[in-house]
Design goal:
The chain is of the alpha+beta class and about 170 residues long. It has a domain of about 110 residues: Transthyretin/hydroxyisourate hydrolase domain (Immunoglobulin-like), CATH 2.60.40.180. The protein has 3 helices and 8 strands. The strands form 2 sheets. The chain has a 4-stranded mixed sheet with strand order 4-1-7-8, with no helix packed on it. A 4-stranded antiparallel sheet has the order 3-2-5-6.
Length: about 170
């Protein structure tokens, strides 16, 4: 076994030990074990950073089929009230796929469950994208929650005629 093989094995063994330790529940480790960096520095957590002057919701959708959002995407934002999703605001993204400023902010942003309905079928039809009829996706509902209305929420979406994913961005 040469020197490089031994070094690689030590590296792999060290990585496995570190990864395993990260997966263990806090109660399984020693009481004086170091805590994750996020716990030591609360400002590092995005959820702990309040937005100046109240919270806000922004939006960004990226068309992964064309490689960038080259048209405008129609979005209807709704909030769950009394067991039904009620309209809050409808908007079209600007050419880069972003909302033109905050979708809602300040007092308008309330804790609760929301739905953003994306008109993906209309977006691709307006661009003349050749797709089968009927298309695989049409109106795509994205449901998410706002737990603290003083924070900033950024709804980031990746979409194509056949798939989508979304997450809370920064």
């Amino acid at each position: 076994m040469d020197k490089h093989d031994r070094t690689r094995r030590k590296f792999v063994a060290g990585g496995l030990a570190f990864g395993t330790a990260a997966l263990l529940p806090a109660s399984a480790g020693a009481a004086d074990a170091p805590q994750p960096a996020q716990a030591a520095n609360p400002a590092a957590a995005p959820a702990a950073t309040p937005a100046p002057g109240g919270g806000r919701l922004t939006f960004h959708a990226i068309d992964t089929h064309h490689g960038s959002t080259i048209g405008t995407l129609r979005v209807e934002l709704r909030r769950l009230e009394g067991g039904r999703y009620e309209a809050v605001r409808s908007f079209d993204t600007v050419k880069n796929g972003r909302s033109d400023g905050a979708v809602i902010e300040g007092e308008a942003l309330k804790p609760g469950l929301y739905e953003a309905l994306l008109h993906v079928d209309d977006y691709f039809a307006a661009l003349g994208t050749p797709l089968p009829s009927p298309g695989f996706l049409s109106k795509v509902p994205l449901r998410f929650g706002v737990h603290d209305a003083s924070q900033r929420y950024h709804l980031a979406v990746l979409f194509s005629p056949w798939s989508y994913s979304y997450y809370r961005g920064s």
